[in-house]
Amino acid sequence: MDKSTTQPNQRILALDILRGITIAGMILVNNPGTTQTYAPLQHAEWLGLTPTDLVFPFFMFIMGITTYLSLRKFQFKWSVPCARKIIKRAFLLWFIGLAITWLVMFFRGMESPLNAQLPFTQRLYISADTFCHLRILGVLPRLGICYGLAAVIALSVKHQFIPWIIGGIFIAYYILLECCNGYAHDNTNILAVIDNYILGAGHVFKPESPDPEGILSTFPALAHVLIGFCVGKGIMKLNNLNDKIERLFVIGTLLTFAGFLLSYACPISKKLWTPTFSMVSCGLASLLLALLTWIIDKKKHQDKLTDFFHVFGVNPLALFVLSDILLIPQGIILFGGSSIRVITYKNVLLPILGIKAASLAWAILYVCLNWCVGYILFKKKIYIKL
User: Fold this and answer.
1) CA nearest to 385, candidates 120, 27, 89, 148
2) Is the pLDDT of residue 3 over 60?
3) CA dihedral sign, ordered 181, 182, 186, 191
4) Contacts of residue 312, Cβ cutoff 8 Å, sequence gap at least 6
């Protein structure tokens, strides 16, 4: 058999590697040693695009592809096991995200100097009673909601109509932004108005501006996942690996150029999740996947670097959740009144490297810490599905 030919059902290893890259990237940019970091490791303030803005949408694009692979096992037909799987996964992602937010707020309350003089039981109660200002949405809830809705659409609608649904969502959202002060960076923005009205000002990221994972921006994020689904359908039905790579490259090029061209009318913004942001980020993800597929699956080039990201790729969400949970002991385990992060960053890394380089070094060390846990799971062939 020609090396360039694969079975249509065969999984592309590059998909796991790209997913691992995005998870490692998400952990890296979410956990700097300090707020002073290099520009590429920061999100765009409002409009615009940085490399950091790409890691989360890359993962959502991949989630669209894997949603296709997952539902293909059910022949895209409703069944009790299929419905149970969708509901369970969507709910778990939302609930875990909510639980982590509560845990972080709880331990911050326990550590707060404002509560330090209170009796332990009262400090415990105040720290635990954070539900009146608990953020309801976020990264994991967005993943759960978009996965659940995308799966329902994939099972309920003929697949040839999904591109029309994507286009309809993008057009409707663009009109909403244009007509309802959708680009304002304050609480007069229609996105902020809806978030504050429905969720309440205490349950959003910042009440003075739109929540980056708010209600209305969830719709273009859903379309984003559906683009990944369509790409997954388009490449997985091909037998020849060269054809897969070519199709990924063509799709990626068209989406990227279209997104940048349309950005003159509809600015690129992750915090608004504009249609052009989805198009550009999906396009770049498709191009990167094409490159990795050529390198890894066609040329069979695998080394320690691909093995490193493979560890993240086979347990992506579990390790992402772990990266949030591991923040808790960093804050409550103190040595001489300082946390592990403060001691490592200020006393070890900062004097040697300087502010920004030390911040990056800490983030890399934290990625490696999570990788060590993932490597143990990988070696034991333990795959935690969320």
Assistant:
1) 89
2) no
3) positive
4) 19, 20, 21, 23, 24, 319, 370, 371, 374
Residue 216 has pLDDT above 90, yes or no: yes
CB-count burial class (<10 Å; 0-12, 13-18, 19+) for 253: middle
pLDDT at 334: 60
CB 23 within 8 Å of CB 59: yes
Q: What are phi and psi of 335, to 5 degrees?
A: -125, 110
Contact 63, 282 (CB under 8 A): no
Q: What are phi and psi of 19, to 5 degrees?
A: -65, -40
**Nearest Cα residue to 109 out of 353, 298, 328:** 328
Report the alpha-carbon distance of residue 38 to residue 357 in Å, rounded. Answer: 8
Q: Write out the two tokens for 36.
A: 């002073």
DSSP 65: H
- CA nearest 154: which of 218, 89, 77, 93? 77
The stretches of the chain forming alpha helices (DSSP H) are: 13-30, 52-72, 80-111, 120-128, 139-156, 162-179, 190-198, 218-236, 241-262, 275-292, 304-314, 316-325, 327-332, 340-342, 350-353, 355-379
Integer Cα distance of 16 and 250 in angstroms: 21
| Amino acid at the residue 97 | G
pLDDT tens digits, one per residue of 103-156: 888 877 776 777 767 787 887 878 788 888 889 999 999 999 999 999 999 999
φ, ψ dihedrals at 5, nearest 5°: -110, 135
Cβ(311)–Cβ(257) below 8 Å = no
DSSP character for 5? Answer: B
Q: Which amino acid type is present at position 221?
A: A
pLDDT, one tens digit per residue, over 340-362 is 777 777 778 888 888 899 889 98
Structure tokens at 194: 């809806």
What is the number of residues in the chain?
A: 386
| DSSP SS3 for 240 | strand
- Enumerate residues 6+ apart whose C-beta is below 8 A from 200: none
Longest dimension (CA), the chain: 73
The two three-digit tokens of residue 229, written as one number: 């689904």
